[in-house]
Amino acid sequence: MIFDTPYELQRIQKADTLRSIGKNPYQHNLTKETSTAEFLKAYAYVAKNEPQRDESKETTLIGRIKFLRHMGKAAFAKIEDEDGILQIYFSKESIGADWFDNVKKLIEVGDIICVKGFPFVTKTGELSLHVNTLELATKSITPLPEKFHGLTDIEQRYRKRYLDMIMNPSVKETFKLRSKIVSTIRHFFEERSFLEVETPMMHPIAGGANAKPFVTYHNALGVDRYLRIAPELYLKRLVVGGFEAVFEINRNFRNEGMDQTHNPEFTMIEFYWAYHTYHDLMKLTEEMFNVLLKKLNLPLKLPYGAIEIDFSKEFRKISFKDALIQIGGVPQEALKSAASIYDYLHTKGEAVKDGMNIGQLYEELFDLFVEEKLIDPTFIIDYPIQISPLARRNEENPDIAERFELFIAGREVANGFNELNDPIDQYNRFKAQIDAKNAGDDEAHEMDEDFVRALGYGLPPTAGEGLGIDRLTMLLANESSIRDVILFPAMKPLNDETNKQKDEL
């Protein structure tokens, strides 16, 4: 049986005893009239009155018992709901002697109760609820962790998010903030006449970004399908079809490693804007951040860990190559060729695989010497074309793509570019990606002939961008790990013995 510890078996027995005296330990006919926060706000005046009670006001609250102390013929408890915590008082006189004695024996910390009563202030000055009616809503079978240490094991917090939320109320605040971020972004784009759409999560061809896909099998069709790496190619098909401004907020899946900023299942917004450029996207993105900070009541100089991010000034823009030189300290002469970059990396003691093209080597230099230094919002623009297979070439310099990435607090937050709408160029780039894949690059794009065909009908001049919701939430919630902003992050499986040991903590 799952519930087999002595404490759990004892609680199961208490649930059976409640049934035997006519009390259902799992009721469904209880109504919550007010929240703890609403109670404290509505009856704040009681603390200023004499006597400090208002028996004419009766209200019903439901919450989980987080603290319970019996004192002979009376008891104090703390109950918690989504909005906060409230002290309650009940006694033999207020709820009846027989039921009081049963409550004392059968109801405990972790149980969810429904209480009705009036506001009053205790001798210690705390606004509380004087309970006249107490009903059990839900009997808790598994005891909560010991109150002084709580739930501190980080893996347990992620694996049992429900318990994490019970024991650490601030966790709920992080996810409320995340919800507000998504809602604000959605309204931001809707107010600018973008249409929200949904595109497939299972793709016949893995594409839209350089990443390893998850592979599944479609029984009815008898073919493999790929969980989507990105919605890009489908969203651009919609622009071909005539939608001039579209966005999608949804999940992407990448079968790669996990760390502080990567989870294999993550949320992004991607948006595409016909007859606009990547410069327009940068302006729009900066405007979106200003709206987010204002709507969420966050400061323009935002603390993040040990650093402060300055949103009060215009976002910096610097080219990829200039960033290597000016921020990364890479000598200009080291950037002349692939061979000179290899030499420079070797002098720095960095091991890199052979056969990388100059664009990939530029990216290696950027990751090593630039990225972590980009604290305040910075647009890195004009990327090497070799690492931008879906972006439009710059007409004056065909070696660079009309592309940007936004970095904040040393991490990439968004990626955008002028879309490649030349079907022949796109076909040739896909072919080059296939060559790279055949040479061992398992993140390279597949050939998507239908997408190339769609471009053949004519994609208007379009700019598109993807922005990671998880990393954005990390930033605005001041969290250092992506697992702290995903309700149920991916976790390595535990063996049965380890799992049992952790359950007993």
Describe it.
- The protein is built from 16 helices and 18 strands.
- The chain is α+β, with helices and mostly antiparallel strands and 505 residues long.
- Among the domains are: 139 residues, Nucleic acid-binding proteins (OB fold (Dihydrolipoamide Acetyltransferase, E2P), Beta Barrel); 171 residues, Bira Bifunctional Protein, Domain 2 (BirA Bifunctional Protein, domain 2), CATH 3.30.930.10.
- The strands form 4 sheets. The chain has an 8-stranded mixed beta sheet with strand order 6-10-11-18-17-16-15-14, sandwiched between helices. It has a 5-stranded mixed beta barrel with strand order 1-2-3-5-4.
- Strand 12 and strand 13 form a beta hairpin.
- The protein starts with 5 loop residues before the first helix and ends with a helix.
- 30% of the residues are buried.
- The model has no long low-confidence stretch (mean pLDDT 93).
Task: Provide the fold topology.
Layout: H1 6-20, H2 36-42, E1 59-71, E2 74-81, E3 84-91, H3 92-95, H4 97-106, E4 112-121, E5 127-138, H5 154-159, H6 161-167, H7 169-190, E6 195-196, E7 202-203, E8 215-218, E9 223-227, H8 232-241, E10 245-253, E11 265-274, H9 278-295, E12 301-304, E13 307-310, E14 316-319, H10 320-327, H11 338-347, H12 358-369, E15 378-384, E16 400-408, E17 411-418, H13 423-438, H14 449-457, E18 462-468, H15 469-477, H16 496-503
Parallel strand pairs: 3-5, 6-10, 14-15
Antiparallel strand pairs: 1-2, 1-4, 2-3, 4-5, 7-9, 8-9, 10-11, 11-18, 12-13, 15-16, 16-17, 17-18
Helix pairs in contact: 6-7, 7-9, 7-15, 8-14, 10-12, 11-12, 13-14
